[in-house]
Structures are given as C-alpha cells and as structure tokens.
UniProtKB/TrEMBL annotation, chains A, B:
Gene3D superfamilies: Winged helix-like DNA-binding domain superfamily/Winged helix DNA-binding domain. Pfam families: Rrf2. One of its GO terms (cellular component) is cytosol. Transmembrane segments: none annotated. The lineage of its organism: Bacteria, Pseudomonadati, Bacteroidota, Sphingobacteriia, Sphingobacteriales. GO terms for molecular function: DNA-binding transcription factor activity. This is Rrf2 family protein.
Length: 145, 145
DNA sequence: ACAATAAAAGACATTTTTATCTTTTATTGT
DNA sequence: ACAATAAAAGATAAAAATGTCTTTTATTGT
C-alpha cells in the first residue's frame, strides 16, 4: 500500500475527476467516474456517498443527476479529502506507532518524521481541489494508469 | 494506520530495541522485546523470523539464545528494515495509486509527492540502525508509549 | 546422552480493508 | 400521476492485515 489507503486514492482521483468535469455546473455519474479513474464502481459509490454526506462533494439523484462540486467544495484544500477518508493520523501520528508523539517523548525518528509529515501536510493544505483543474485541463497531468 | 504498516512499526521498534540491548554481543529474547516495545509476542515472533531469514537481524536458538545484531546489521540503513517489511513502494509508488508514476505521466500530485518521498527515503537511508543507539542510550528518545 | 531453553514453523482466528450485488429513495421530464 | 434515472442504502463476500496458540527444531549446559 502507498502512503494513503486504496480507498483514499480512489477518493482523491474521483474528486479530481469530478472537479474537472463539473466546472460548468453539470454533474457526472458514478459509472463514468469509476471507468475513467479505474476504480470498482460500487466500492467507489460508497466512498462518494460518504464524501457527499460530509459535504466534501455534492450530489443529486435522478435524471441528469450525479456528482459535482459547488464553489465552496472547489475551494477546499485537498487535505480535507484525505482527512475525511483516512483521518488526520497521517499528519500527526508517530511513524513508529507510539501513542504519544511529542518532542518531549520522542521516538528515534521523531524529529525527522516531523519534517516529512509537515511537508506532506502543508503541500496538501496549500492547494485547493479546484486548482488542480488547470493542470488537468492542460493535459499535463493524468488520473488513470 | 500511519505511514508504515503496523507490522513495520513493530519491526522497527524491535530492531531498535535489539540494537540497544545487544551492542555488547549478548542476545535478547522475544518475550522481553515484545513487552518492552509493546507488541503482541507471537505476531512479533513471525516478523523477526522473517527479518532473521533475510539477514536483517541475527538469532540463535537454545539457552542464552535470542536475537541480536552483528556489525554488518548495525551498519545497515533503517530503510532496509522498512523495505523488508513493507516493500519499497512507499519510496516509489504514486500517491494516487497510478500504476506508472513518472514525470512524463504525472498525476496532479506527482511533483510534490516526489519531494516528500525523497525526503522520507533519504532520511531513512542516511542513518544506520546502530546510530540510533546513542539517542536511545542517552534516554532522550523512547520506544514505548 | 539428556534436559532445559528459545527460536522456527505450522495451524488457526479475528479484524480491517476492499469489493460486489440488490433494493430503496429521491429527482426529473413527460 | 408516471416512467425513467441515478444516487443512497443494505446485505454479503473475498482478500489482506493482524493476532493467538500449539508443535517442532536447534542449541546449550550439565
Ligand atoms: S514520537 Fe515517533 S514520530 Fe513523534
Ligand atoms: S504519478 Fe502520482 S506521484 Fe507520480
């Protein structure tokens, strides 16, 4: 497994895809998303249901329904998606699994890990979901394979 | 879960503990290790068996037996333990789970992730298992709680 | 040789993650 | 109202990670 859970990877890829395809206010369906980001449809559906309940993404049922992002969602930092799915532990927890991670009670890796975690966090906090669209639309980045 | 699997966390904590307690050539038993690093004994036994087979740590059976580290093992970078347990994916794989992670086929996070991964890797490669002993012996770092 | 010791190995159980399928509910256009 | 649509919700299932227990093998000291 990578840094994030597979569930989280699907979530981020899906959110990017939704952002890219709904900038104009339209919606995109679960089937298309699943195919385009290469994820299992029904599993992804669960993930998006959860994100929808949390207000990270928006959805409407029925004809022409689907998932989309409103202005507020587009303005969220990507870290919100990560936290919603995997929790914020990755930004805070000890790399060696110790319960209390602090400078007063450091494990051998504490200080170095702090640096890595902070970098990861600030990177994911400093860019919004919407901002990725530019690169996606320019075709210089990709969401599949 | 943190950056590493729980299995990997146990492994690293155990290796540190072994290093600290066998600098003089003695051995330390699985029961003591498990208690001191707060891990399930039999599960940890499996992990250490594997590390022993791979030559990352050393072991001898029988009375006064146990686990220890020879000079070569003490000189290994910590990244060797991580790779043995979790594989090297964490240093190489795409943060969004794409199969081919490269600058020619980058996901939206590729460049930022590259930086984070490289930092993590160089940090884990640049310090040897034995080098952690100083801090451990000085009591300024800890392996439990 | 023998008994004690401690890791290695094997078998099994639980939990979490990942995945699939079916039914229900909300929405839309006619 | 009605039929079509698409997400929400529910029920299972498969796979992987994590954890426990028992038996076997190698080593040591006597
Ligand atoms: S105590 Fe381990 S990373 Fe802080
Ligand atoms: S393609 Fe995603 S991190 Fe490289």
């Amino acid at each position: 497994m990578g840094i994030f859970s597979k569930t989280c990877e699907y979530a981020v890829r899906a959110v990017f895809f939704i952002a890219q395809h709904t900038a104009d206010g339209s919606r995109v369906g679960i089937k298309e998303i699943a195919v385009k980001i290469d994820s299992p449809e029904h599993f992804l559906a669960k993930i998006l249901q959860d994100l929808s309940k949390r207000g990270i993404i928006q959805s409407v049922k029925g004809p022409n329904g689907g998932f989309y992002l409103d202005a507020q969602s587009l303005g969220r930092p990507l870290s919100d998606v990560i936290e919603a799915v995997d929790g914020g532990g990755i930004f805070r927890d000890c790399g060696l699994g110790l319960k209390e991670c602090s400078s007063k009670n450091p494990c051998p890796l504490h200080h170095d890990f702090l640096d890595v975690r902070n970098r990861l966090q600030s990177m994911l906090e400093s860019i919004t979901i919407g901002q990725f669209n530019e690169d996606l639309n320019l075709g210089i980045v990709v969401l599949k394979k």
